[in-house]
Design brief:
With about 180 residues, this protein is of the alpha/beta class. The chain contains seven helices and six strands; from the N terminus they run H-H-H-E-H-E-H-E-H-E-E-H-E. Helix 1 crosses helix 4. The longest helix is centred in the last third of the chain and has 12 residues.
Length: about 180
């Protein structure tokens, strides 16, 4: 993992202007977040690998974690634990609506959404309400630059990874993620 972070450090990104605006209590849009480099991780669960590598290398400041199995209450409980994101603590939170993320509305799918081998209702909690929020993280005092950027943002979204990729990266914002992590 260290070699990947070292390689990515050749592509350092300065702190995005929208992140500085948020720190000054100015309004930030979802479009702002998508305008900088984005690291995308569908089916992320609690895995912090992408965040660690992207942040240590200073190559990306915005992470988009998408998982339809991660209940908001479980995620918030995990984040509230000390050192859930080692060396960092949350200093801000932005709640997003569907309209914030996709001001043009959802685009219709031209793909068959029927699962091949399973019924998604057998493992997705039908009572879990969709959510999307961004945490602004700040490096803990006493940590140096090798830990990572002073600030970064991580967005958590309860959704399907393929559908989210299609809606956000293909249709709405028309750009690919800067880093994409896919685990089998």
């Amino acid at each position: 993992m260290m070699n990947v972070a070292e390689d990515l450090s050749n592509y350092r990104e300065e702190e995005p202007t929208w992140l500085g605006r948020h720190l000054r209590n100015e309004q930030v849009t979802f479009k702002d977040i998508m305008s900088s480099r984005v690291a995308y991780y569908p089916g992320s669960g609690y895995d912090g690998t992408l965040m660690k590598v992207g942040n240590m290398s200073h190559s990306v400041h915005s992470f988009l974690y998408v998982d339809y199995l991660l209940k908001r209450s479980d995620l918030e409980r995990h984040i509230a634990q000390k050192n859930s994101i080692r060396g960092y603590h949350p200093i801000g939170k932005i709640e997003w609506t569907e309209e914030d993320m996709m001001p043009n509305g959802q685009y219709p799918f031209a793909i068959n959404k029927k699962p091949m081998f399973f019924d998604p209702n057998t493992f997705v909690d039908p009572d879990e309400k969709p959510y999307c929020f961004t945490l602004i993280m700040e490096r803990d005092e006493g940590q140096d630059d090798t830990r990572g950027a002073v600030h970064f943002a991580i967005t958590f979204l309860l959704a399907d990874g393929i559908a989210t990729y299609y809606q956000l990266f293909v249709r709405e914002y028309g750009k690919a993620p800067w880093i994409f992590l896919l685990q089998d």
